[in-house]
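Reopening this ticket.

The earlier resolution said the output was attached, but the attachment link was broken on my side. Pasting everything inline this time so it's all in one place.
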Amino acid sequence: MYDLIIIGGGPAGYRAAELAARGNLKTLLFEDRSLGGVCLNEGCIPSKALLYSAKLYDYAKGGAASYGVTCENAAFDYTAAVRRKDRVVSMLVGGIESSLKKSGVEILREKAVIQGRGENGFSVNSRHATNLLICSGSEPMMPPIAGIETAMTNREILALTEVPASLAVIGGGVVGLEMASLFNSAGSNVVVYEMLDKIAGSFDREISKMLQEDCERKGIVFKLNAQVQNISELGTEKVLVSVGRKPRTEGLGLESIGVHTERGAIVTDEFMKTSQPGVYAAGDVNGKFMLAHTAYREAEVAINNMCGKKDMMDYSAIPSVIYTNPETAGIGETLESAAAKGIAASETKLPMQYSGRYLAENDGANGICKLVFSNNRLIGAHMLGNPCSEVISTLAAVMHARMGIDQIKKIVFPHPTVAEIVKEAVYHA
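Inline output:
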């Protein structure tokens, strides 16, 4: 008999398992694939390892010349980059497994199916527990396009060991843009098809346009307002489908315990509780914010409440990043989304060149920082420029603390750092 059974060993699952074990809960974790889930094995980490190799190559083949550094006959050994990516993934997966075992978590490598609820609590593969946490993650959405079975998803494209001569990307969201950036740098002719009138989904419209223009200067072709009907008509060596993900709930046995779902996602409240007492869900499976860092926090909220420590999930300050070169990051409301919600808001924006560190390290780059305020409080922040993926963390802390303009002005930023752009923008508000 266990105190907790967790289904899924991705970011939510392994984070929850370690916290639960530290809290003296006897914990069993089911994972039928690889620990670390999609993020570590087929998404966040392997893509970033390859994107960093591509960024170095961009500099080596000419991007570093304005800094006084030249590299003759620069070449991109993609196979070597993949080997390095695999080493990084293997090291991190091994670290997670070691940490879980050290914490006392029992791990079963098999598909979990919920069999019901009885006197011995919840039954999963004939094991029983008082509490159940579902962290089964998500899977790629595959639109009804002729020949879709020949296309790649994030899993297959990150397993490639050679660079295709040409690549069509269906979907101009985060994954599509990152893979377009990677393979464009590596030498592919890349075309991105997006059915909306802009790339980057819900990201700030002006920043999305600036990012598109930057990608176009590097040779990526964009076809907006485009709906692909047949894969064979694209005429490229490889095709990537990246139009979104859906919660992975089929075959879990949710019906055996009556857990409520909507459009395939498990419905959770701010405590990560489902419709059934003792059943929690965290990560992509609830369909709210399909991001690894959101999953970590949801897992913490679930375990804290399970252990009697009241904790609530706050979705108002969840940052998002696209790791293209240059990076773009955003959090909270844009001026456009605030207006759509009837929120009276104002916006201040500055070129990233207002940061001395940015100017020193990003020669010729066209970056921007935009802050959105309402009632003297920061409700959104959006940036384009390296390394905004690091700067956005500061803005997440500011938003989570509900800080006003006067409070933000009192923050002392180390000089010179790119993050100083935040204080500059606040003084221009």
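Reporter confirms the inline version is readable. The mean pLDDT is 97. The first strand starts at residue 2 and ends at 7.
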